[in-house]
Every structure is written in C-alpha cells, then in structure tokens.
Design brief:
Strand order of the largest sheet: 1-5-6-11-10-9-7-8
Largest sheet: 8 strands, mixed
CATH architecture of the largest domain: 2-Layer Sandwich
Number of strands: 16
Shape: elongated
Number of helices: 15
Structural class: alpha+beta
Strand content: 15-25%
CATH superfamily of the largest domain: Bira Bifunctional Protein, Domain 2
Distance between the termini: 49 Å
Length: 413
Amino acid sequence: MANILKVLKGTKDILPQEIEMWHFIEQKADEVFSKYGFKEIRTPIIEVTELFSRGVGDTTDIVNKEMYTFEKSDRSITLRPENTAGVVRSYIENGMSRLSAPVKLWYKGPMFRYERPQAGRQRQFHQVGVEMFGIKQATADAEVILMAVNYLKALGLNDLEVELNSLGCPTCRDEFKNRLKEVLKPYFEELCEDCQNRYEKNPLRLLDCKVDSCKKIFEKPEVQEVINSDFICDECAEHYTELKLYLDRMQVKYNENKLLVRGLDYYNRTVFEIKSNNLGSQNAVCGGGRYDALVGQLGGEPTPAVGFAMGMERLISLLPEKESKKLDGYIVSNFPTDAFILAEELRKDGLNVEFDLSNKKFTKQLEKAAKVAKYAFILGEEEILKHQVSIKNLETGQQIKADRGFALKMLDF
C-alpha cells in the first residue's frame, strides 16, 4: 500500500461536522461588528516581506523566527503572520484616507506563523479582527474594547477578564526604556537569550517574557518600582484616564496590568487583552491596542488607528459543540427519476433535501432519512400516478399524504 499523505504539522482540516461552529462565529462577527458600522475587508494572504518587517517590526519574534517567507521572481514574499499591516497597506493604497473618519474595517481569514503547535494555536490559524482609522480620541479605544466584549458575549462567553495598560507615546516611552535597562543591567547575564537580545533592540518586550527565571527578576522590588512608575506624559495620561472613564460608564470591568506590552512593535498608548479562565496558561482570546504611527510608517499620511484580533480556533475551543443541522427532507423512493424531479422542486421552494443517488432498498433509504432529515418525502408508485407525495415527520412518526403542489403547505417549515 502506498504511503498515505498527511496534513502538514501545525495545520488542520476543518471537517463538515465542525464547519457549523465556524459559520456561527463568522456570522456573529458580521452581526455584531455591523451594528458598530464596521465593513468587511479581504486582503491577500501573501504580501511583500517588507510590509511585515517595516510594519510588525524587525525586533519581534514574528519577523525574526516565525514568518513563512520565500523568493519568487526576485521578490521576497511572505504568508501573512497577522493582518493589521495588510489592512493598513490596503487603507493607504486604496485612498481610504479620503473617506470620512472613522474608517471602520473588519476581517476574517487564515494567518501563518512557524511556531510550536499548542492548544488553540496552529501554524496555519485563523483570526477575526477589526481596525479603525482616523480617530485619536479615547472614544475609539473604548468602542473597540466594548465591541470585542459584546462579540464574545454574543458567542456565549462570559468567564472573561479584560486587561489594560498604556505604553505611552514614543517620547515618554523612551525615558521608561532607559530606566528599565538601567535597573535590569545588573541582572543581564541572568536573563534568557531572547531577553538579552531584546535588551538593546526593544527593552519594552522584556516585560512580555514568559520564562520563569526572567519573571523572578521582574518581581524584584527595584524592578517593580520602575515598572509601576507613572512614566507616561500628561497627554498620554489624560488619554488613558478618559479611556478608563468610558469603560467604567459602559460597565466594562477591567484590570490594569503594567506588564502588558503585546508582542508587536507598532503599539502605542492603549494595549489590551481579553482572557478566558478556561484556557490554561495560554489564555488570551483577544489582543489589541492603538497604533497611531503605523500608517505613516508604511507610507501614508499620519493617521491615528486602533484595533484588535481574536484567534478563531481559541474561540471555538471555548464553545460547546453544536449539533449538525438536519436536512429539511430526504426523498425515499425506488423511482430515481421521479425522486430527482421532486428533489429539484423542493430545492426551488427553498428546502434542503437529498435523495438516494444509488437507489438502495426502500427500508435502507428510510433508515438513512431518519438519521439525516426532519421529514421523509415518500414517492411510491401510487403517489407518482396521483401526483402526490407522502410526508412523514421523522420525530413524531406522523404521516400524511398530499398533492405535490400543496405538500409544503402541510409542513411547519
């Protein structure tokens, strides 16, 4: 027997019995986001590599370790590891800055990162997310956070925690970076290899480290004093205060977390995560924040922006399984031509129906109908001669006979 080809490690088939859950979270996204005025956008899954090295940041793990990049016709191309940079590129390229602010966009689709597969995370994974352009006020931050919470509630998720922080602007953040480097300098040799690399390139990312030995260093009193200091400037502090006021008024519960920095370089001021207590250590289901410099970095006019992304696999792992929907009807008949014609009549009337393409025995067809459909449409010789159909409710066992033109009126569809 020939070797069976298998799916690549870190990728997964989404099977028919699972797809209804995917449809559910996608439809809820459209439903909730549309209420806030967001329009769907679909960008390519391949982009020029420079988009991510400039946009996501060449000091991030994503760019340094995790991107799927290849050369084609002397051009470096990358499978998108995230979609904010792609949406920003589209915003600039398609002249959306000329639209009335705010420009509100949402997306769904696959992303690609080469990392160790784990619960709720694959090398090909899917995200649903939003981006809002053109509003610098904290109202925009508050709206996307509130909308994220309401979307998760619409899915049926309630055991959630919102974590919040402000990274300040580049000016006030530089002073904080220098103070952090100074207080960590005596412990440099004790930091993990990744943190030693980040120490010069992006010291703020040190706070995002998950290695236990680094966490212990960050818990030292002198390090905690720097981390918990109010380093942000007056303007950033006012923005952060306004955001918290809006969240309080909208009754969004949150915890402030000074260690929350997110893993991408483009964030400034607001960063947030929404976590589930049912996912173990890797418990974030939503992450986002403000990225006011990114549009300018990628060649557009300076434009304030804020957004979030959610891993769809993680969302599905938190939701109860859905039962597969049954067909409206299954045609039971040993007259395949007549069954075929009836099937098309019912489909044109809006029903989901099948019939036995292989013309099995009548009893086998009835058994199949009981498993997959709500009603059995029975076509025997008598029904065909009288242009009728027998309709059996497969839940109650009740059966009636009706003229073909009136059959649907007899049903509770």
